[in-house]
Design a protein that fits this description.
Elements (H helix, E strand, L loop, with lengths): L3 H4 L2 H14 L4 H12 L9 H8 L16 H6 L2 H11 L15 H5 L28 E6 L2 E8 L8 E8 L2 H9 L8 E4 L14 H9 L8 E3 L11 E6 L16 E4 L5
Parallel strand pairs: 3-4, 4-5, 5-6
Antiparallel strand pairs: 1-2, 2-6, 3-7
Catalytic activity: (2R,3R)-2,3-dihydroxy-3-methylpentanoate = (S)-3-methyl-2-oxopentanoate + H2O; (2R)-2,3-dihydroxy-3-methylbutanoate = 3-methyl-2-oxobutanoate + H2O
Keywords: Iron, Iron-sulfur, Lyase, Metal-binding
Enzyme class: lyase
Length: 270
């Protein structure tokens, strides 16, 4: 019978990344897919964060769903769901159609009877490749800079103000940052830095749910970027740069930051 390692390959993981980008999925997919590749013993040379970035540069945003869009996943399901998304991507040459799936058939064989978007009734939930919601390279983006010499990840879809320069407010854990936000000491223009929350430092790389939500609740979501070696929710608002590598506990540059250091966050200028 079919076993997992026949299905989980570098090419099938590229397919997964492609679908994530097309529907506006979470940055958490970056972590999960890289972890799956590691567990499946796929060579790093075949599937890595740089490859994720390269794939993202050619995939447009097609699904007009929350948190960046007007509709929700049940609406997407109503116009064909993930198979309709995949058919659009396959027709555009963005999927590896020869990958084996759990059905025992290839991706292309699974999708041969799925109607393309252009053949469906008029709707605004799923856009065709020829008229995407957002052009390629504008969803999940891998960044590099002197605070993240190896990499960092940011989600751009649905975001504005893609350049920010401001003083750092530095915290060594999520709870300390949350308390200061709630106390009103974080101001418009600051750059909130939460470090020692990476895979080793926390340990476990938690989501910065409380600080992110607190910034939005305080009316600062659009005005205070968050930079962290931890991760953040796919539903986060504002500029949130996560997965900063090397993380602080490994001696990454983020560990050297002090309050008042001026940080430029400019994912739109990558």
């Amino acid at each position: 019978g079919i076993h997992a390692r026949q299905i989980i390959t570098a090419k099938s993981l590229e397919n997964a990344v492609t679908v994530v980008y097309a529907v506006g999925g979470s940055t958490n997919a970056v972590l999960h897919l890289l972890a799956i590749a590691h567990e499946a013993e796929i060579p790093v040379s075949a599937f890595n964060i740089q490859r994720l970035h390269e794939v993202g540069q050619r995939v447009p945003l097609l699904a007009n769903v929350s948190p960046h869009g007007r509709y929700h996943m049940h609406d997407l399901d109503g116009v064909g769901g993930v198979p309709a998304v995949m058919r659009e991507l396959l027709d555009a040459g963005l999927l590896h159609g020869d990958c084996l799936t759990v059905t025992g058939r290839t991706v292309a064989e699974n999708l041969q009877d799925v109607a393309p978007v252009r053949a469906r009734a008029a709707q605004e939930v799923l856009k065709p490749f020829s008229d995407p919601l957002s052009p390629a390279g504008n969803h999940i983006v891998v960044l590099h800079g002197n605070l993240a010499p190896e990499s960092a990840v940011v989600k751009l879809s649905g975001k504005q103000n893609l350049r920010h320069v401001g003083p750092a407010r530095v915290f060594n854990n999520e709870d300390a940052a949350f308390k200061e936000i709630m106390a009103g000491s974080i101001k418009k223009g600051d750059v909130l830095v939460i470090r020692y929350e990476g895979p080793k430092g926390s340990p476990g790389m938690p989501e910065m749910l409380s600080p992110g939500a607190a910034l939005v609740g305080a009316g600062l979501g659009k005005y205070v970027p968050l930079v962290t070696d931890g991760r953040f929710s796919g539903a986060s608002h504002g500029i949130m740069v996560g997965h900063v590598t090397p993380e602080a506990v490994d001696g990454g540059p983020i560990a050297l930051l002090r309050d008042g250091d001026v940080i430029t966050v400019a994912p739109g200028e990558r």
